[in-house]
Amino acid sequence: MFTGKVAVVTGGCRGIGAAITQCLAEAGAHVAAGYNRGAETAEALAAGLRAEGRSISLHQGNVAEPDSCARVVREVLDQQGRIDFLVNNAGINVDKTVRKMSVDDWHAVLRVNLSGAFYMIKAVLNHMTDRGSGRIVNISSVIGQSGNIGQANYAASKSGQFGFTKSLALEVARKGITVNCVAPGFIDTEMVASVPKAVLDTVIGRIPVGRLGQASEVARCVRFLLEDEAGYITGAVLAVNGGLEM
Ligand code: NAI
Question: pTM of the prediction?
Answer without folding.
Answer: 0.98
